[in-house]
Amino acid sequence: LGRVDITAANLAYTQSRAEQIQFSDPYYLAKEMLIVPVDDAGQKKADYEGQRVASTKGSTSEMSIKLNKSEPLTFQDTASAYLAVQQGKARGMVANTMTTTKFVNESKTKGKPMRMIEEPMLYQP
What we know:
Elements: H1 15-18, E1 30-37, E2 52-56, H2 60-67, E3 71-75, H3 78-86, E4 92-96, H4 97-107, E5 114-116, E6 122-124
Parallel strand pairs: 2-3, 2-4
Antiparallel strand pairs: 1-4, 1-5, 1-6
């Protein structure tokens, strides 16, 4: 394997990653958002404490679920996490704003309609 001098990716800062990667100064503040079926009664992230919430394994989304006292149900990719909500295996799913917006928009024409909880689960640089 070779060395990498620079990477431009959707890679959020975490303390453990910073031990191996030299991050630039933050230039964007991302949000980890929770999406749920439109008929779900929850209105704020506290309503999901102790509840099963899906995410990608090892991601900052998973970290945000734990920080908010929900029970993470993790998958290798976001599509599988989303499918878990569609199948009723998890009450909601957490991912970045762009990903959750995509899933909410797609759900209007196929699958169980979804909505986004307005309060972010986590802000991340």
